[in-house]
Amino acid sequence: MRRRVAENLTAYGFLSAALVCFAVFSWYPIARGAVLGFQQVDFVNDPAWVGWENFERLFADPLFATAWRNTLLFTALALVFGFVVPFLLAVVLNELRHFKAYFRLVVYLPVMLPPVVAALIWKWMYDPGPGLLNTALRGLGLEGLSWLDSSDTSMLSLVLVATWANLGTATLVYLAALQGIPGDLYEAAELDGAGVLRRLWHVTVPQTRFVLLVLLLLQVVATMQVFTEPYVMTSGGPEDSTVTVLLLLYRYAFYYNDFGTASALSLLLLLVLGAFTALYLRVTRKADA
Amino acid sequence: MRTLIAPGRSRTGYTIALVVTTVVLTAIFVVPLLWVVVSAMKPAPELARVPPTVLPETWTPGTYAEAWDLMDLGSYFWNTIVVAVGVWAVQLAVDVPAAYALSRLRPVLGKAILGAMLVTLMMPAAVLLVPTYMTIADLGLLNNPAALWLLGAANAFTVFLLKRFFDQLPVEVLEAARIDGANQVTMLWRVVLPLSRPILAVVSIFAVVAAWKDFIWPLLVFSDPARQTLSVALQRFAPDTPVNLLLAGLVLSSLPMIGLFLVFQRHVLAGLTAGSVKG
């Protein structure tokens, strides 16, 4: 009995620093965030309970709908590029038996760049005049685009940067999953007369389904919180075409000093992302069982 | 090993695929980086030319030194190093004992504590931005790197990775040390940590890279320009810095991470699959 108490004391001694850090920087902010959404907070006066007022202010803000539309557009485009492309790239890389180390190095190199650096490099390359991208397009005999300067292409431009910078992670995770597929499955499918595309669809995709689904959900959750690219590259413009939910949240909190409304927006974001997170949990649980 | 397409099916097809992949990936991922490195060495007027010159007509490698002095990159490097090394040290000092306790000492409520930690992984970071910022402000930690160190220590992912590794250590080794009369601190320090080098390497690299890449937290915490990290300072300088100097600054501030990657590539890539899902 005494031994058991002593053991527990040691264990909690080891845990104490972590418990304090989690309590102060995770658990308490979670609870506090829920309350803040219903308070008026400005760092000058004491916080006051205002009920649903913060939410009403949000719904009345025309930028609210714009921000959600932009964020969903970003997420959708990011999935088209950031989900499909790495998978196909991994399939191709898995077939190649040369330069393996080089390919891994190259696709992962941009992941090591600080996102601010990637954003500023691309902002410079997007320059419609001397920028690398329009120079390349003109070299191919095409017309240059306005990229970040036009509300038609601004969001697409941000998606390209984010994809370029992050694609390496997904590619290498898929590549690891592909290497786990038993070779006889392909052989058997081939004996049955399945061509390359049918083997890809009926063997490769089902065999990596779990990894694909997990990364898809993680990617949705990550891309819906996009902040650095619009903040650094466009500040939300032109014509509010790149104001994302997080950028709006940042403006409420740090331009208008309205932490209550910013928290209300956080709660709405939590509601939406919570649905995806619950889905993610269900998927991973099932695989564990 | 057999993959989608049987090896040796079509020599020419394979060669074409190999060449195309090499060219495309190099063009997309390497050329822009080289383009930045080289362009930084063009004088500002040459950089504004349409179409751009491929190689500088006048090489000005001195731009790098000039950028270093003009933007005072030395002090921003120092600030970033203080943040990154601090995050690394505090995270290990806090999370290793915690993971060891949860894995080996199994205290009362241990499972509940691990659960409560893992729940924080499911909280989107953006949702906690405002309340965590206010908590940091209440503690008087604004403009103090310790805010980022402590924030980094509350990392459930690190605790989870470490605990899973400690779970798999051979029981016999630990039992033997125990019979020899080692107490838990000696056990962790002398027996468990030396056996845990692979996971410590992965966790360390994760921590340093994440701290170096982080933007939003340093942006919120360091309103004082003298305390800012490279990322925050560079985006502040960007609008009114001559392009050649800015490019040089971007290259210089990325070098430590690129270097780290080239040296520890194996560990970085091992961490990728250790962290996500097993294939």
From TrEMBL, chain A:
Keywords: Cell membrane, Membrane, Transmembrane, Transmembrane helix, Transport. InterPro entries: ABC_transporter_permease, MetI-like, MetI-like_sf. This is Carbohydrate ABC transporter permease. CDD domains: TM_PBP2 (cd06261). Belongs to the binding-protein-dependent transport system permease family. It comes from Saccharothrix xinjiangensis. Residues 68-280 form the ABC transmembrane type-1 domain. It is a multi-pass membrane protein.
From TrEMBL, chain B:
It is found in: Cell membrane. Pfam families: BPD_transp_1. Keywords: Cell membrane, Membrane, Transmembrane, Transmembrane helix, Transport. InterPro entries: MetI-like, MetI-like_sf. Residues 77-264 form the ABC transmembrane type-1 domain. Belongs to the binding-protein-dependent transport system permease family. This is Carbohydrate ABC transporter permease. It comes from Saccharothrix xinjiangensis.
